[in-house]
TrEMBL record:
<dbReference type="GO" id="GO:0030313">
    <property type="term" value="C:cell envelope"/>
</dbReference>
<dbReference type="GO" id="GO:0016020">
    <property type="term" value="C:membrane"/>
</dbReference>
<dbReference type="InterPro" id="IPR058627">
    <property type="entry name" value="MdtA-like_C"/>
</dbReference>
<keyword id="KW-0812">Transmembrane</keyword>
<comment type="similarity">
    <text>Belongs to the membrane fusion protein (MFP) (TC 8.A.1) family.</text>
</comment>
<feature type="transmembrane region" description="Helical">
    <location>
        <begin position="15"/>
        <end position="37"/>
    </location>
</feature>
<protein>
    <submittedName>
        <fullName>Efflux RND transporter periplasmic adaptor subunit</fullName>
    </submittedName>
</protein>
<feature type="domain" description="Multidrug resistance protein MdtA-like C-terminal permuted SH3">
    <location>
        <begin position="344"/>
        <end position="405"/>
    </location>
</feature>
<dbReference type="Pfam" id="PF25967">
    <property type="entry name" value="RND-MFP_C"/>
</dbReference>
<dbReference type="InterPro" id="IPR050465">
    <property type="entry name" value="UPF0194_transport"/>
</dbReference>
<dbReference type="InterPro" id="IPR006143">
    <property type="entry name" value="RND_pump_MFP"/>
</dbReference>
<keyword id="KW-0472">Membrane</keyword>
<dbReference type="GO" id="GO:0022857">
    <property type="term" value="F:transmembrane transporter activity"/>
</dbReference>
<keyword id="KW-0175">Coiled coil</keyword>
<keyword id="KW-1133">Transmembrane helix</keyword>
Amino acid sequence: MDIQLEKKRFSNQKLLIIGGVILLLALIVFVILSSMGGSKLNVEKERISISTVEKGVFQENIPVNGIVLPITTIYLDALEGGRVEEKFVEDGAILKKGEPILRLSNTDLELSLINQETQVYNLLTQMQISQNAARQNTINKLNQYTDVESGLIEAKRVYDLNSRLYEKKAIGRQDLIKAQNEYNYQKERMLLSKQILGQDSIAVKQEQNQVQSSYARTQNALELMRRKVADLVVKAPVDGQLTSLDAEIGQSKNKGERLGQIDVLSGFKVRADIDEHYITRIYNGQKGKFSVGGKSFSLSIKKVYTQVTNGRFQVDMQFEEEVPEGIRRGQTLQIRLALSDEKQAVMIPKGGFFQQTGGNWIFKINENGDTAYKVDITLGSQNTEYYEVLSGLQPGDKVITSSYDNYGDVQELVLKD
């Protein structure tokens, strides 16, 4: 008798399909659960920095380094070249105006001075000889003039006498004409003598002027040469402190070469380097602050040097009121240079979070203080201590401002005590 077999409800193919679907669903669930588990990270509170969002007075500023310098520096250059023969003081000495610093020697310059002095002496001797000759010539001409004048007087006397004698018919007409001719001759001589004497006077004056002018020029050249030789002794142009002296005995210095500098000690200024990014926002009168010994001091920009070198430019700053006690040349100051006026703003302290977020988001802590989650934010200006918050946070909110280096793509932090 045949036994009827029960027909299978599922074929092997259907079983494989069902098994595959179950495995796929299990994989999806696993991925979802894994993703949800990876979006959280346990963090100990003591290893992070928690800051409170504040609202208060905010001012945009940047940190700059400044070097303390004398308010005025006078550079010492060699006015004449020469060999260093003697040093009267050393670097760092406090000097008075006119005090000698060092002495140079220049044989060619000293020889030129001797030649110039000889030339002036020779010219003076020639001028004296010329003046004596002119004086003697004038005396001779005056003597000649006196002789002519005497002859004219005598000729006039004889002519007047002969005129009266002729009227009385005591002499003949020829005697009268002879006396008249002599008188006319002497008058012509007198006129000529006056002209010669006048011309001689003009010539003498012109010659004297020329000689005196030539002597004055030569004398000026001599004085200039004497000053050039005197410049071989380098002296302090002002009261101050000698710094950066670069001269040793026996060393040769060229004309115009830098020898050192004099720092005027009447006050100080601060020279600061600033990134060229801010060059359009820097102007005279702009304020800055720094602290020394826990006390704050104010500076203002006095001069802006617009030349950019290696991506930076410089400014000179002056002390607004009080100068720190004991400040010295070359001291470095950490200055907070203001770029805006003070205003009320929402702000958060600066921290390492910015390097990972770029200021676009931050971990904000919930009210219970046990969880922190990502929120989008918008930051504005900044200073050395704070970022200005434009949106995304409110005063009183607590945020994590320390570095996010180890958080990866975590969306939520679980804070543990």
